[in-house]
Specification:
Order of helices and strands: EHEEEE
Largest sheet: 5 strands, antiparallel
Shape: globular
Helix content: 10-25%
Number of strands: 5
Strand order of the largest sheet: 1-3-4-5-2
Number of helices: 1
Length: 137
């Protein structure tokens, strides 16, 4: 098995895939809101951790909108993108998109923002790298 070079990866996006199984759903066969929030928080945690390369915690979730139901049997893609970096905070926009595996139809179902904080080994907020400047066009 070949090794992957240990390059410094600081991606501003993370994508997670999940299948919605019966134990993730309510009596209507749709995804529990709490399960969607947990998946969204996990994606925000991953992208923020990869960016900061230190311990990261969730400080706040903001304006989570559940626009479309997510059904048992759907494939769910959770897309987390860092949109703003402060001194020790990172604002992460998270979208939940479903895909019907038989038809390929995709729908944006849920959207929210999470504020993640980078911590030093003593649990205090610590600086994180700035986002790259937008390319001039």
């Amino acid at each position: 098995m070949s090794e992957v070079p240990n390059a410094e990866v600081r991606s501003t996006e993370a994508r997670l895939l999940h299948m919605v199984f019966p134990d993730h759903t309510n009596h209507l066969g749709t995804l529990f809101g709490g399960q969607a929030l947990a998946w969204m928080d996990m994606a925000a945690f991953i992208v923020a951790s990869r960016w900061a390369r230190t311990t990261v915690v969730t400080a706040r979730s903001e304006q989570v909108d559940f626009n479309q139901p997510i059904h048992k049997g759907d494939l769910v893609e959770v897309i987390a993108t860092i949109v703003r970096v402060g001194r020790s905070s990172m604002n992460v926009d998270v979208e939940v998109v479903t895909e019907n595996l038989l038809s390929g139809e995709r729908k944006l179902c849920t959207r929210g923002r999470f504020v993640m904080i980078a911590l030093d080994p003593l649990g205090r907020p610590t600086p994180v790298p700035a986002l790259p400047a937008p390319a001039a066009g």
